[in-house]
Amino acid sequence: MFVRVRSGGIWGVEGFPVEVEVDISQGLPSFSVVGLPDNAVKEARERVRAAIKNSGFSFPLKRITVNLSPSDIKKQGTFYDLPMAVGILAATGAVNPQDFVILGELSLDGKVKRVNGILPVLISLKKKGFKKFVIPLENLEEASLVSDVELYGIDTLKETVDFLNGKISLTPRSGNLNLKEEKFSIDLKDVKGQELGKRALEVCAAGLHHLLFVGSAGAGKSMLAKRIVTIAPPLDYEEFLEVAQIYSVAGKPRGAVATRPFQSPHHTSSEVALVGGGNPPKPGAVSLAHKGFLLLDEIAEFPRRSLEALRQPLEDGVVHISRASSYAVFPAEFTLIGTMNPCPCGNYKNPYKVCTCTEREIKNYNSKLSEPIKDRIELKVWLSPLDEESLMNLPESESSEEVRRRVIQAYEIQKERGKVNSRLTNAEVERFVLELMDREAKSLVKEAVNSFKLSARSYFKLLKVVRTVADLEASDTIKDYHVAEALQFITEV
Ligand SMILES: [Zn+2]
Asked: What is the mean pLDDT of residues 262-279?
């Protein structure tokens, strides 16, 4: 007896259809699975066998062969337990799987457990025309981000069989996507002073430019950096889906949230936690920050190896996980925000404290951030702590909501142009920045290149930031004061 059950799998964050083919024939009782990695097969077989028995069905004492097709694609995850069990029961005539796509992990007692990565599977199978899905009840909430499909959430193998046999009826859930924005208890207003730092954060949020805050302890660097999420533009639908799929694979569903992701791994985090890895491979912080922000607080304290691992995602927007047992590619297009002390003691250039570091120590400390990373950073701002008296006399600052209005407007302008400013190519900088500069702006840029001895790279970074500053004012033409403001952000650290 031969039966085919539809299912699906993932590789990285790509979903694809899988057919679970079950053949039961006479012969010595055996149970073999083809198309899964060896270590996974053994565990899957045990779960399927126990779940069938413990759900009150009899496990056929015959020769059972299961093939997961396409067999040449290495499969990850535990999607196949439930379709295998259904396939075996179908081959004995106990159930008819019809044309449902069936996914789920089984526990030994027959309960259907949630799987990681259900979103990429549903999204890719929907594109291929599949409409009806039997999935773990525990995944239903997460899965209902996908519209125009019928989702049946089930809790046990027994329930699956009863449903497929028409003994019980379930109301299908269909996606109802209503993207919401997170409400924050923090606000830019909470940070006193630091107007230049706030403005840099605004420019960072609007043009998605990488940013570094340097300054002594107590200057409020990380307090400021954390507020990026309160002013950033929302994800659009396409971006939302990309992000949601990564979180699904990571086993951390985010829900219908349009707020840009924010990750701030500690400097003691492992390299795997930072860039991803494991078996099956899971995305790390750089991928969980995809389309959002990666805050590295005290960036100089991160091991050099970890910082070096950021080079590839900063360059290509993806991260390749390559381990002995696994290989995957995850998206990792994030905006980096770093904070760092100016020296080991933290008091260099602090007007209220004394720095006890030698010049050499300060130099060594700064070289912890390698040139390739520094090269990528477009905005650098020095933050000094304020004394109590100046703090008391500060005027009320703008709220996140007010700043965000400008950010969103600037972001929309870039979207119409087709690209966010930080990602402009040199040719696009020519077209969208240089050609739109008035005479005074051009001469100021020329002057800056000469007096700061800007490298070609710094020159293009400056021009991209100039574009964002002008966009924040909704000005198509670039004026000299836009250039002057952008120049404040390129101060070498
Ligand atoms: Zn010092």
From this structure: 93
Distance of CA 365 from the midpoint of ligand 1 (Å)? 10
**Would you state the pLDDT for residue 324?**
67
| Cα 347 to ligand 1 centre (Å) | 5
DSSP sequence for 224-291: HHHGGGGTSPPP-HHHHHHHHHHHHHTT----SB-SPPEE---TTS-HHHHHEETTTTEE-HHHHTTT
The arithmetic mean of pLDDT across residues 373-395, rounded, is 84
Q: What's the pLDDT at 491?
A: 58
Q: Report d(CA 292, CA 355) in Å as an integer.
A: 35
Average pLDDT, the chain: 92
CA distance 278 to 284: 10
CA 346 / ligand 1 centre spacing (Å): 5
Q: Show the tokens assigned to 350.
A: 């602090």
Q: 276-277 and 282-283 as β-strands: parallel, antiparallel, unpaired?
A: antiparallel
Residue 72 CB coordination number (10 Å):
6
Distance 342 CA to ligand 1 centre (A): 7
Distance 257 CA to ligand 1 centre (A): 42
C-alpha 340: how far from chain center: 24
- CA 357–ligand 1 middle distance (angstroms): 4
- Dump pLDDT digits (tens) for 56-113: 999 999 999 999 998 877 777 789 999 999 999 999 999 999 999 999 999 999 999 9
Determine the distance separating the centroid of ligand 1 and the alpha carbon of 301, expressed in angstroms. Answer: 15
Mean pLDDT of 267-281: 90
> Quick one: pLDDT at residue 326?
67
Report how far ligand 1's centroid is from the alpha carbon of 380 (Å): 19
Return the structure tokens found at 367.
């070289």
pLDDT given for residue 391 in this prediction: 73
CA of 486 to the centre of ligand 1 (A): 28
- Report CA(371)–ligand 1 centroid distance (Å): 22
Confidence band of 493 (pLDDT split at 50, 70, 90): very low
What's the gap in Å between 361 CA and the centre of ligand 1?
A: 8
Distance 356 CA to ligand 1 centre (A): 5
Alpha carbon of 385 to ligand 1 centroid (Å): 15
Amino acid 299 reads I
Is residue 38 scored above 70 in pLDDT? no
Q: What local confidence, expressed as pLDDT, does residue 209 receive?
A: 97
How many whole angstroms from 152 Cα to the centroid of ligand 1?
Answer: 61
C-alpha 485 – ligand 1 centre gap (Å): 29
What is the set of domains in the chain, with CATH numbers? 2-164 (3.30.230.10), 188-387 (3.40.50.300)
Q: In a 3-state reduction of DSSP, which class is residue 63?
A: strand
